[in-house]
User: Fold this.
Amino acid sequence: MTNFSSPTVLLVDDDPSTRVYLMHLLVHEGYRVVEAEEGEQALVLYSQSQPQIVLLDALMPGMDGFECCQKLQVLDADLPCLMITSLEDQASVDKAFAAGASDYITKPIHWPVMRQRIHHLLKARQNLLNVRQQAAREQALNRVIRAIRTSLELDKIFSVATREICHLLEADRVSISRYQPQQQEWCVISEYQTQADGYLGCSIPDSDNRMAQLLKQGKVVTLETVSQAKDWICIPSMAKAYPGSWLLAPLYGGSGSSGRVSGTESLSAPPTLWGSLCLQLKTARSGWLATSHNLILTLADHLSIAIQQAELFQQIQELNHTLEEKVQARTAQLDRQVQELQRLDHLKNDFLSTVSHELRTPLSSIKMGIRLLSSALLPSNGVAKPPDPEKVARYLDVLNRECEREIKLVEDLLELQRLEVLIGSQQPHWLDLKEWLPPITDPFAEVARSYNQLFSLEYPPDLPPICTLPEVLRAVLAELLQNAHKFTPTDQLISLSVHNHPDHLEIQILNTGVTIPPQEQERVFEKFYRVPNPDPWRQGGTGLGLALVQKRMNLLQGSIHLSSEAEHTCFTLRLPWVLSISGKGKLAQPKA
Assistant:
């Protein structure tokens, strides 16, 4: 059986036996058949029956099939005509298609072939009609959308929208109602109808209203006929005036949205029911609700957008009245920021003053060393004297150390500035500390042994990989190990140990034989601060090493803690297992 619901077939053939044969087969397939004996009669029957397809014999007395096909095409250019003839020559085939035939089949008729061609032609005609109907609806929909988006005044939007929707969907009445929860009612604020009587300004009670309950649940209400739900209708006169099909869709406003236009629900706030869009027919129309459902939902969504835009415009106007207060508040905030900038500028000046002092201190020592070296090498009072090798060596050693100290101070200052810029700009990598640590600690262990210091490296055998910044971590460990080497006496221990914890990795650098006083422990991470030493010439430093370590630990998103008692000084590093990154950077997976 064919998929189409009883299409009408106009059968035109002067042979009665052929008509009877085809009539029987077509009726069996579910078609409605209209017969004609010749071309003139076919044209008359076409106007009366409006068939969906014509089966046309080519050779008939009077008006033949070719001429009849041409005239049918003038009446309906989309009407499929299947030419049936015993002619098989090329000229006849060309003549048939030139006359407007959709297909061509020769006698004797092979019914399975004809049945498929009829089905194919009807399907192609229906597809063409569907495409044209969809195009017409889209054009009308675009006109409606443009109309409801050309203004921010709701009265004008609703007036245009109800009229255009009524024409587009061939409804008898279209209305928009505003939901008023405080009054427990729905008020009709706009409508367009084809008859004189209207319900503009009418209030519809919200309580005991089944349709209102469904709308508040975000559902679309469809009634094939009002008689199916008489107890739903709160206004009997409206039900009497429009007893046919009804369709009601919710409208949303405020901060919410229905979510149908974009395909996603609002993340900022739940939908806020604003009102409803209602379409009504005087008579029940078969298939009207099914074909109009999605289109009405689209129109309701665009109306909701228009409502939200209009309300937003109103809110903007209200916000303009408070703009002056916000400007004053912003001005006060800027004043506070200026004060903060002045405070920071004062801190900057203090920092520059401290840096200048620290840079001058090694230069003063260098100048003094040059003066002493000159007195040891140059003649005094014109009388030459042999230089004292011990003094010369000592003065040169002082000059060398102070030059190195000055260079180290400049390098540390540059590194301090570089770390400020690096924060958030580097990408972390996975490290296997069991393989990564020995190449770093082995050279240091050789230096420690040359000074008769003991060194040990310990880590658990099941130590997992860590995702961090390798070069930054290397600089931290190098500074702490070098610091331990400088202050650890002979025959004392320096150790680096790694410990697993569920939420972090812990690294400890311990040295024995020295204790930092409690009052000094709180200041060791300050810039330019050095723990007092009775022999500053022996262990002079820039005072920036531990400050740089703390900066680097911030870059590693970790922390550093100092404990020192009973000639045991320990720096403890706590690092996250995986360094979090900003932006769109991706981490490589750890090696198995």
